[in-house]
């Protein structure tokens, strides 16, 4: 397989060089201490890693810092107040340029408002907002006050919101009246009201940003307008330092059961690794680059590579509110051209969508400012990789395929631009300071040319510190499988090629990856059986040309319900409503039976074979191998 050697001109100016991994190998703790000193510490740390309470790490444990101070104040103090932090592009075409000085003002106003509402360090705040600047301001204001934020993707249903608000016992929800969706305003505050209903909850206030001008239901005292509170609050506020292990955020992600896991991240190590990776993996140069990460703040990529990493590094970035095809398929390319974007970070699904739309669309634009291209969220197939490099990058721009997870907090495995000779489709190897291996089921380390499970065999600064309210599940999910070795089990399969370069093969558990979004089979199954017509459901992720995986459901109906198409549509809608449109099944098959093992476990592997139209694999462990005749003819 061809490798793409770094261009000498790029290598000559790159932030990273080969000495980075030498330093990390020679003195790992010293290396991370050096990285942590990218940040401003109110109280310098003297210890680096304390792993005595494994699997809960303490990084820079006796240090104190303020995350918002690091992302905003210090840049203003250093004389960069006039630098644009955010070029915000609204879906309807409105835009705002927000400098670091203005961002500081806004964050301070929000912090003063939250304090006036009685919130104190350690309290939780839910953020249920589209991609508006106030969402970023809210996250930073929480960080400033030591409040723990829990961002809930604005595409999630009221049920999903309520579940997350309850689990974290949030005292405040920040939201908007609505969000723009392909030219139309869609209600959002309404969903908050539906989520809260009339049952008592932990929520004392709902703070509402006016974005689309929709009328909203209103509960006096509880509900407050942003422009009547934050906008008129004082813009002065002094940031106070918090210990490095103070919680920063909870972010819910799908696991193998129906209940989402509240992944907990803390401050010092998290900010260190997001800043370090953003600097080296994207070769980011403050004051020069125009950086654009197309993720939503509802996902970890938005947390680490829109908010914390880039702002800690004084980036000037584009934040876009809408979809890539509004008003038409040129939108992203127009934005790249308009702002002169130099670093672009997106998901393979979108690249494959652009491929489908055709290269004449990007070809109609000047994309020559682009100098680093990133990919995240799912394996990128070599064809999409080459197309990305060729069409976006004039065939000479490095591509960084970045593997990481909500749990890892920051990028773990990726090529370094200017250093690594990257291969299309390969995540290549762990970053300097990070250690990973590929092992078999028994924990035996595999060598070149072998495939197995990906594990992380050393703690890293931005690692999760637990699952909110459920430390047993934390130990069980990530640490039990290779407990005797003390390794973190990532849930992904991986392969080492003949050169020893690493390829991520995708999830090995019951988590699907649809357009880079993690969705558990159990969650969709439980939404389906919530419908009175469904007795039992089994869900699998089947490979999909554009979205990576598509959700395929097999359902057994109660009683004598029919196989009407209307029911299938109704079930798809029910899943959208219960979870989110991103969890909507691509196909639903009504079947008379499901394949089960003798212990009653649904054999998803076989259903995947059916969904992908393959010959059936080994059916010998099935209770009743004839069920497949029934499924195939259903
Ligand atoms: C998958 C997103 C292949 C993987 C940052 C992982 C990837 C899950 C890649 C985490 C990549 C992420 N190549 N697969 N470059 N990046 N994944 O928590 O299965 O939303 O376990 O974090 O996405 O998804 P999450």
From TrEMBL:
PROSITE patterns: AMP_BINDING. GO terms for molecular function: acetate-CoA ligase activity; AMP binding; ATP binding. This is Acetate--CoA ligase. One of its GO terms (biological process) is acetyl-CoA biosynthetic process from acetate. Keywords: Acetylation, ATP-binding, Ligase, Nucleotide-binding. GO terms for cellular component: cytosol. Residues 20-71 form the Acetyl-coenzyme A synthetase N-terminal domain. The lineage of its organism: Bacteria, Bacillati, Actinomycetota, Actinomycetes, Mycobacteriales. Residues 77-468 form the AMP-dependent synthetase/ligase domain. It is an enzyme of class 6 (ligase). Belongs to the ATP-dependent AMP-binding enzyme family. InterPro entries: Ac_CoA_lig, ACAS_N, AMP-bd_C, AMP-bd_C_sf, AMP-binding_CS, AMP-dep_synth/lig_dom, ANL_N_sf. CDD domains: ACS.
